[in-house]
Amino acid sequence: MMNFGIFVAFAVCATFGLVESRRGEARSNFQCPSCSEVGENAENDCETNIEMKDCKQSDPLCLLFIQYKDTGRKYRRFCASKKAYDQIKNCKACAVGMCSTTGCKAEVTELPPAPTSVPVGSFMCPFCNGRGENALSNCDKEISYNTCNDANDAYAGEMVKDPVCAVFTRQTKVGFAARFCLSREDYNEKALTCKSEEGCESAMCDQPRCKAEL
After folding, report:
1. What is the rounded CA–CA span in Å between residue 37 and residue 44?
2. Contact 166, 187 (CB under 8 A)
3. Residue 196, CB-side half-sphere exposure with 13 Å CA sphere
4. Could you tell me if 11 and 53 are in contact, meaning their C-beta atoms sit under 8 angstroms apart?
5. pLDDT digit string (tens) for 172-185?
6. Which side of the chain, N or C, has fewer Cβ within a 10 Å radius?
7. Residues 125-154, buried b or exposed e (16+ Cβ, 10 A)?
């Protein structure tokens, strides 16, 4: 009887220790990409400074949180519990994405609504350049968002008046594509010139951070 009691006690301790060990592994083995930035280039700055961090929460998820702030766009990747996600997932003024496997990068299906009134100097556009057979696709892989002022050399230090976000492509021996910001007046002039050139296409949109489509 004594031997049986010792065996049971040993089994209970071993099982309890195994459960605790597994709990510890579940916490330490689940990781999420983490970063947080606010400002004009928040997305780019955040994505280039990602760190993988252990999640201590129960039912952990990897989240992406995007929201417009007075100082620019807030862009944050972090780990949170499912309960916390359920509390913020329906936020009307932000966009929240989640994924549930360790190390995954959450995505959002659409960006949060831009402020109804855009402060002077805060109109931003996607900027990129691409070359080759898939020039536009190559360009879009390198997009960064910049304010429509001295980021565009044509306006060295001055704000663009009546800004629009434009895309131009040219299919020649070496394809070329570019996204940038310019004034509506300048776009109309360049678009007219583009139409007269073989293989040239252009498009524009006039909302902050919009992505013109051909």
Report:
1. 9
2. yes
3. 5
4. no
5. 778 999 999 998 88
6. N
7. bbbbebeeeebbebbbeeeebbbbbebbee
